[in-house]
Amino acid sequence: MKSVDTGKEKVKKICEVLKKETIDPAKKEGEAIVAKAHAEAEKIVENARKEAARIHDDAKRKIEEERNVFQASIHLAAKKGVDQLKQEIEQNLFSPELKKLLGAKMNEADVVAQLISAIVGALEKEGVSGDLIGIVSKEVDVKAVNQALLKGIAGKLKGNGVEIGEIEGGAQVKIVDENLTIDLSEDATKKLLARFVRDDFRSVIFASKS
Question: Which of 36, 46, 148, 209 is the most exposed place for a label (fewest CB within 10 A)?
Answer without folding.
Answer: 209
